[in-house]
């Protein structure tokens, strides 16, 4: 289980920076303000919001890439602040940068990251075999990353994020730019993580993915939490008959809930 309490983050910006003026305090841009939520084992949380709302900042804080100005992030096993190494060992993070070495093969990448997390040779081979089946990597696992298509790279990057069998999985728009087949494979992988009892958080702009996979929804708007709850609660609160309509209403009202 993950608990996030009053997470805040600001960045120093140049006067010429194109940022919303109502989130500026002198030279500081308030990216996030007092975000709180929890995520249980075997639960998928969908993170929604407009571009620039603070979704990626939230995920980078949860992954440990960024350090919060204030607030707490902890799981049942470790705290991001107090036990950062133990905390990072239990999470897998996928960002837009992919995090793969292009001149290595997919197998070599997976082997490198698995061993970096302390897996034995036997454990590494078992994980690579399992992920190869889950993500359908076998046709290109011994090809160099630089030779792969966008969809192949994305599946390889997801394999990299999962190779150490993390308990907390964080994906930033994992299906962006993928075709239908690759998207279905990624969504199937997320479902498999859920069935294995993992906690999954992922940002997306696709409401069908939210409806298919998510147990609860977190909406961030202008750096603040506007909604956190189930799909049924979301539809009811904004008197909507679809997630698209509920999200539109949520963002238009702009009142944190």
UniProtKB/TrEMBL annotation:
Species for this entry? Neiella holothuriorum
Q: What are the GO MF terms of this UniProt record? A: ATP binding
Name of the protein this chain belongs to = ATP-binding cassette domain-containing protein
Q: Which InterPro entries does the entry mention? A: AAA+_ATPase (IPR003593), ABC_transporter-like_ATP-bd (IPR003439), ABC_transporter_ATP-binding (IPR050763), P-loop_NTPase (IPR027417)
Question: Which family is this protein grouped under?
Answer: Belongs to the ABC transporter superfamily.
Q: In its keyword annotation, does this UniProt entry include Transferase?
A: no
Specify the superkingdom.
Bacteria
Q: Does the keyword Isomerase apply?
A: no
Record key words, sorted? ATP-binding, Nodulation, Nucleotide-binding, Transport
Name the SUPFAM superfamilies for this protein.
P-loop containing nucleoside triphosphate hydrolases
- What are the residue boundaries of the ABC transporter domain, all occurrences included? 2-247
């Amino acid at each position: 289980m993950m608990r996030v309490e009053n997470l805040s983050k600001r960045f120093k910006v140049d006067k010429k920076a194109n940022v919303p003026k109502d989130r500026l305090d002198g030279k500081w841009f308030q990216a996030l303000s007092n975000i709180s939520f929890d995520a249980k084992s075997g639960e998928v949380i969908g993170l929604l919001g407009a571009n620039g709302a603070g979704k990626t900042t939230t995920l980078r804080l949860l992954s440990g890439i960024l350090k919060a100005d204030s607030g707490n992030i902890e799981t049942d096993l470790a705290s991001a602040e107090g036990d950062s190494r133990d905390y990072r060992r239990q999470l897998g993070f996928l960002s837009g940068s992919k995090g793969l070495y292009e001149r290595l093969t997919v197998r070599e990448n997976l082997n490198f990251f698995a061993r970096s997390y302390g897996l034995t040779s036997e454990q590494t081979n078992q994980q690579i075999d399992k992920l190869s089946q889950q993500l359908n990597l076998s046709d290109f696992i011994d090809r160099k990353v630089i030779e792969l298509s966008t969809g192949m790279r994305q599946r390889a990057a997801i394999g990299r994020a999962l190779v150490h069998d993390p308990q907390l999985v964080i994906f930033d728009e994992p299906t962006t730019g993928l075709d239908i087949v690759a998207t279905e494979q990624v969504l199937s992988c997320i479902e498999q993580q859920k069935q294995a009892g993992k906690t999954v958080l992922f940002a997306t702009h696709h409401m069908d993915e939210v409806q298919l996979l998510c147990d609860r929804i977190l909406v961030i708007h202008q750096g603040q939490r506007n909604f956190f709850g189930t799909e049924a609660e979301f539809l009811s609160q904004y008197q909507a008959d679809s997630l698209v309509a509920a999200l539109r209403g949520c963002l238009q009202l702009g009142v944190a809930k």
